[in-house]
Structures are given as structure tokens and as C-alpha cells.
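Entry 14. Structure prediction run on the chain below.
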Amino acid sequence: MSMLLGDRVVEFLSANKIVFGLGAVSTLAEEVKALGGTKVQVISDRILVEQDVIRPVLASLEQASIPYVVFDEVLPDAPVSMILKALNQYESEGCDLVIGFGGGSPMDTAKAVSITATNGTNLEELMGFHAVKKRGAPKITIPTTNAAGADVGFAIVFVTDEETHEHGLIACRQAMPDVVINDPMLTVSMPRSVTADTGIDVLVTGIEALASKQATPFSDLYAEKVISICAAYLPRVCAKGSDIEGRYHMALAATMSGLAYMSSMLGAVHGLSYPIAGACNLTHGRSMAPLLPNVMRFNAPGNPEAYARTAELMGYDTEGLTILEAAELAAEAVEALLDTIDVSYRLQDYGVQEGDIDKLAEEGMASMEELGDAFLTPNPRDMTLDDIKRILQEAFKSIYI
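Output returned:
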């Protein structure tokens, strides 16, 4: 929760235009023309192409006689080699606008193609915050999952080393899309596991944005709504994927979470999750499940008001509790939600052995320090390597000592 002190200046960032609602994808051709696109590259993955989930996108382009090519080789956590292959198609086909259609990886790949088309192909030189100098090629993102803020966000996450699964991050205004088209109907085909995993990502983003030491009035506005939506609707869409009302609200929360984190940044749940995702071959969202309640308990003394507010937003009565008791209730609320959607918050259920904890902690510390402005600085409480080891040990046992 935000506290504006002295001469602190805050920012609010957003895509230039967000088109939201049932059937919104039908406006695609109109948006392409408004951006001056004459030939479009559509970046997606093979499953969305083979199952024809991509059909509304292609139909809109075809009806408007807009030429396009499709790149459907995107993998989860896109490696550099794949991004450069997509860029080669974009340039060789003479495209002048790129569309990212799918989950976080297709949208991040489209953003990466956009900025490398104008800033050169050395992604390592572009890594970090605000290293990109030139505006990218025009780009549109169209999510088919609830990847938190990937549609509106200024971040591009990719794999820099395919053997070690080491991740890289580019964060800059130039990565933000020109237009976001968020059509909740496109998320109905998500399998239950993807629904749960991306929903966890949205929930974590909302909680970390609210608790961040860099929270602002802008991020609070969206973060609170994100948390309350996830509490109400994530169990519903996991129980029944065809629940259109639930899909509508979760799609809205996913976009809102991006608007929140760009003003507040995130915290240790995100920062510590990448080594776990790589070691256990987990999605980004699932890798955060065993971290979330334990990091919340650790962080509670640093911002008890935010975690107490989280408990309230998740529908829990905090009347009569001390502020720290209410903060603890937030962690219990998260565990109850994860139980409801059948997602484990025990590291051992994902193949982690107790002997792995020291290595994961060291890798997590390195991840936190490498991107300190994104994770370590905004985290409500300072962390040492021993703190991280303890958090992982508690996540392994799922008991807070």
C-alpha cells in the first residue's frame, strides 16, 4: 500500500490503447490499419494454430485483405535462438507490424521482435532496465491466457541459456504494445492447469504490487481489484472453464495486474521463482505457488497493513485481530485458495529434495540481486541468503516454524 513521502515522484505506465470485451478480437484489422500496418507477422504457438484458436485473428485480417505470415514455433520461456528466428521471418517477409497471440511467451516474443527490428539483435546488450534506445516496430498483443500483465507490460522474459534455463529480462517503455486486444472469449479454451497457473501469476502480482515498498496510488487502485477478483473468480474458472463471467473477470484482472506492477514493481515471490521453475520444469505461475504463503509470512513485519488488507480483499474478517494476526490470515487465505484449486504449495510435491535447497537458495539470491530494482528493492523486507534458505525449507515442509 502506497505511502507518499516528501518529494517522491511516481509514474503510471500503460499501453497506448486497450480494447477489452467479449468479441474484441473482431476489431483487429481496424487497429492494424490505424497503426499503418501493410503486412503482418502473427506470432503464436503450434497448439493454438493446430487447434484453430487463432482463427478469429486470421479471419479479421483476411476479411480486410491484410497480408500476413504466421510464426508458430514459440516455446514456453522463449530462447534467444527462437526470437532471432522469428525476427528473420519478420524481416525476410517484409512485415511492418507484429502481433503476439497466445500466452506470455508469444506476446514477449512479439515484443522482442519489435525492439530487435529497430535496435539490433544483441539481446544481452538490451537486457536490464531502459537499455533500449529506439522505438520498436508497431505491435499488438492478444492474450489467450491470463499471463499477468504480459499483454500490457514493459517486460520481456526469455531464456538466455537453453542448457541451464537461465532467464534474461528486458524492461523498457519501448517494449510496451501499441494496442492490446483482450477478448475473454479467447481464454475459454485454456486447460484447467493453464487456468490455474496463470491465475496464480495474476494473484501473486496483485499481492506483491500491493505490498511493494514502491507501491503508488495508481498501483494500489489496480492491485486491490486484482486480489479481490482472483479470490472470487479463480476457483470458479478452475471448476468450470466455460464460466464466461469468471473468464471475463479473470481476463480483466490479468491486464490490471500489469498496470499495477509497472507502477510498483514486484518482490521476492517473483524473484525466487525462476530457479525453481528451471529446476522442476514448472510454469512461471506454478513455480510461485510454494513460495507465496511463505514469503508473505516472512514479509509481513515489513508491511503488515498491506497483508492485512489482502486478507480483507480475499473475503476474510479481520475484526478484532492485531495487524500482524490479520497479515498471517492473508497467508492462510492464500493456502486455502490453492487448496481449492488443487495446487500444491509444498516444494517436495514438485520433485525438490531437501538437499537441493541450498543450491536453489543461492540461485534465488543471485536472481534477486541481478534484478534488484525489480524484486529486492521493492520487497517489503530485506533478505539474506539464510532467510531464503529458511523460506525454501518452510516451503519444502509447508509448515512455518
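The beta strands are 17-20, 40-43, 68-71, 97-102, 128-129, 139-143, 155-161, 166-171, 179-182.
Filed with the rest of this week's runs.
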